[in-house]
Amino acid sequence: MGTMSDVLVALVLSLAPLTGYVLGRFAKEELAPGRRWFTLAQHVLFVATMFVFAYAHKLQFVHAGVGLALIFAYLAFKQFRIWWLVQTVFGAAFSLTSQQFFLGSLIFLHGLPTGSLAKKPKDALLAGAIFLVVSVAVMRLL
């Protein structure tokens, strides 16, 4: 992909939390019983995204090691989950991988439950903005 298309894909991916927030507000009665399933979906999609990132960088042990360490830290310290850190990791991983289509699909799917579980629209917008800024910054550095 070219540089401009990478930025456009990152822009679309950054809209996923906002889309999830809007969907969550339209189906408020479904949020309470589905909260645990949204959380489970976030965990599964995070682990899948990090495995795709590690697989794409199997020859670059530093990147793969960082991805696997993040999976371990995420699963071991669930009570200390910080959503903005996850978005930062996703932004960097998206910019560093050659598997952008597959990784981007997983990141978009992760953004939907993230936005649905957001308390305020500001949180969903901030999650998307963090992803966009980090991914574009890393693209420009490379």
Account of the protein in words:
With 142 residues, the chain is mainly alpha-helical. The protein has one domain. It has helices at 3-14, 16-26, 28-56, 61-76, 83-96, 100-116, 121-141. The longest helix is centred in the first third of the chain and has 29 residues, at 28-56. It is globular. The relative contact order is 0.22.
Give a nutshell description of this structure.
This protein is mainly α and 142 residues long. It has one domain (3-141).
Detail the topology: elements first, then pairings.
Blueprint: H1 3-14, H2 16-26, H3 28-56, H4 61-76, H5 83-96, H6 100-116, H7 121-141
Keywords:
mainly alpha
Sheet with the most strands, sense and barrel status: none
Number of strands: 0
The total domain count is 1
Low-confidence stretches: none
Distance between the termini: 14 Å
Helical stretch tally: 7
Give the averaged pLDDT, no decimals.
Answer: 83
Element order, helices and strands? HHHHHHH
Fraction of residues in β-strands: under 5%
Fraction of residues in helix: over 70%
- What would you report as the Rg, rounded to the nearest angstrom? 15 Å
Structural class comes to: mainly alpha
Shape: globular
